[in-house]
Amino acid sequence: MKQEKDLNEKEEKATQEPVAETQNATGEAEATPAADEQENEAAPTEALEQKVAELTDRNLRLMAEFDNYRKRTLKERADLIKTAGENIFVNMLPLIDDFERALKAMETAQDVAAVKEGVQLIYDKFIKFLDQNGVKEIPTENAVFDVDRHEAVTTFPAPSEDMKGKIMDCVTKGYTLNDKVIRYPKVVVCD
Question: pLDDT in tens for each of the 191 residues of the chain?
């Protein structure tokens, strides 16, 4: 009997839970536990959907911001490459002015030694300019031939045993820019 009574109580509870509302003594609707559960389940779902929408929006904004950053840096890099040599050319302009003055002076000059001295001053000024910008001449006179730093155009028999493998003559000077070879010197090597 007790089991039947417990079973009846469980059936009554089961039939009452799905009902969303019941009426109280005054005829007003009351919320039941099943309605509360549905509301509680809907609230976290809505909060999660709102959070997902928020994170998706933030992600899209970050992607757009990164894309704009990438485009801006590419443009800045392109502008920098275009104008990178500007400073060097601006510093070269006084040398061109000196050459033009020297050429004009050569037309009317009677004293060849003075013209020669003026051209030597311009040459020295130009070498100093190159040195200030990291360009240096590769030494070749009586240097040992180095395949990584010299280009052999021809070989000659060594006049003495101590000259073997050394540079006899330099046909064209070579230069480095900040220790990187930008033009190899063309040399004659003793063998």
Answer: 555 555 556 555 555 544 444 455 555 555 555 555 666 667 788 999 999 999 999 999 999 999 999 999 999 999 888 887 888 888 889 999 999 988 888 888 888 888 889 899 999 999 999 999 899 999 998 899 999 999 999 998 988 888 899 999 999 999 999 989 999 999 999 98
First and final C-alpha spacing in the chain: 122
Selecting from 3.30.390.80, 2.60.40.2250, 3.90.640.10, 2.30.22.10, what CATH number does the domain 136-191 have?
A: 2.30.22.10
Burial (CB < 10 A; 0-12, 13-18, 19+), residue 115, is middle
Give me the phi and psi of 90, to 5 degrees please.
-60, -40
Phi and psi at 30, nearest 5°, equal -115, 150
**Residue 53 Cα to chain centre, angstroms:** 34
How much is the pTM?
0.55
